[in-house]
Design brief:
This protein has a single domain, classed as Sandwich (Jelly Rolls), CATH 2.60.120. The chain has 3 helices and 13 strands, in the order αββαβββαββββββββ. It has helices spanning about 1-15, 35-45, 95-110, and strands at about 15-20, 20-25, 65-70, 70-75, 80, 120-125, 130-135, 145-150, 155-160, 170-175, 180, 190, 205-215. It has a 7-stranded antiparallel β-sheet with strand order 1-2-11-8-13-6-3, covered by helices on one side. It has a 4-stranded antiparallel β-sheet with strand order 7-12-9-10, with no helix packed on it. The relative contact order is 0.22.
Amino acid sequence: MVADLFENLFDELRREDIAPGAALLHGFARAQQHELIAAIDAIVARAPFRHMMTPGGHTMSVAMTSCGSAGWVTDRGGYRYAANDPASGQPWPEMPAVLRDLARNAAAEAGFAGFDPDACLINRYAPGARMALHQDKDERDFSAPIVSVSLGLPAIFQFGGMARSDKPRRYELRHGDVLVWGGETRLVYHGVLALKDGEHPLLGRQRINLTFRKAL
């Protein structure tokens, strides 16, 4: 039984290199789960989750908010980063140190030392919510990596190629997993399949995803 416990712990904390410049850090954020959730709750109290509209007029199934110097927004005017929350007209909440430090440490672990994110998009997936294949290309500088933190219910992440038509590989992201990608895979198409229903002991029937970027 003791051997099984150590084997499970190793599996949760192992690093899986999934592509050049891309690493899945299993369980990397789990030790800080309570601090992370408290920080997210404080952000949401100031900038509540909302379902944004795409330029084509479709309401996104994923609810979003942001923190940092800029927040990612979408509406009829297009995709972009904005310094102020369009719902309140006020600056987005500052990025808490616990979030920024996690992103920096995860990036360094994946081989991207010196990452300094200025934007954190916070996505809330309810059962059935999904994210279609897309590229993260609204940032000014593609030399910095993307750091994606998963909390709550597990999700199936699709990691594709440089063309939308490239068949994506699928990875299960569990609570506390961190996925980092950059370099030659910085602009790969990626997405999340429809979230299956379930009950997480800390977050209930939802998945929270933190996506850190160098936007400005």
